[in-house]
Amino acid sequence: MKRLKSIESLILTLRGRKILIDADLAAIYGVETRTLNQAVKRNAERFPEDFIFALNAAEKLKVITNCDHLARLKFAKSMPFAFTEHGAIMAATVLNSKQAVTMSVYVVRAFIQMREQLAANSEILRRLAEIDKTLLQHNAGLRDIYQKLRPLLQPATDPPRRRIGFGQHDK
User: Fold this and answer.
1) pLDDT digits (tens, 9 = 90+) for 132-158
2) What is the DSSP string of 87-143?
3) Distance between CA atoms of 95 and 83, rounded to whole angstroms?
4) How far is CA 123 from the centre of its chain?
5) What's the mean pLDDT when you consider all of the chain?
6) Other Cβ atoms within 10 Å of 79 Cβ, number
7) CA-CA distance, 109 to 104, in Å (whole number)?
8) What per-residue string of b and e applies to 119-145 under the rule 16 or more CB within 10 Å gives b?
9) pLDDT band, residue 167 (cuts 50/70/90)
10) What is the pTM of this model?
11) pLDDT given for residue 38 in this prediction
12) Is the confidence at residue 52, as pLDDT, over 90?
């Protein structure tokens, strides 16, 4: 479970996808980043665009800025690759090392756990929206009742006082 937590902390979101940077995936699989990228290039037909993509300069800067453990990428000559869940699994098959195959199970579980958390969060957000809508309906009803009750809540005015003394009264 600890291993799953550490892998989950390496998963980032770029271009609306959950990804692992090539340096992190190589470390998980116990190979050098160069070795991982060579295996990917040798098997390019197994890695369509929805499995792997190269970061652009802005994305690389964002990753380096937000992830302290990736600061070493700042001086890399080439742009790092981002592996989606399917790309990470495919990378384990082309590396064909025992550690890569073993760790790919943990990688898949980490992606699944993150997906489940997102689904749970979206369900919570949906429920909160329903509650909010209900409260707004009740607020309108309560506001209407308050407007009707407001005159009744005003302090009663004192009745006019009878004048004391002699004088001409209107008849």
Assistant:
1) 777 777 777 777 777 777 777 666 676
2) HHHHHHHHH--HHHHHHHHHHHHHHHHHHHHHHHHHHHHHHHHHHHHHHHHHHHHHH
3) 14
4) 13
5) 80
6) 15
7) 9
8) eeeeeeeeeeeeeeeeeeeeeeeeeee
9) low
10) 0.60
11) 92
12) yes
Could you give phi then psi for residue 127, rounded to 5 degrees? -65, -40
Dist CA 169 CA 129 (whole Å) = 67
C-beta contacts of 51-56 below 8 A and 24+ residues apart: 51/83, 51/84, 51/86, 51/87, 51/90, 52/81, 52/82, 52/83, 52/84, 52/87, 53/15, 53/81, 53/82, 54/79, 54/80, 54/81, 54/82, 55/14, 55/21, 55/79, 55/80, 55/81, 55/82
Residue 17, both tokens: 């996808």
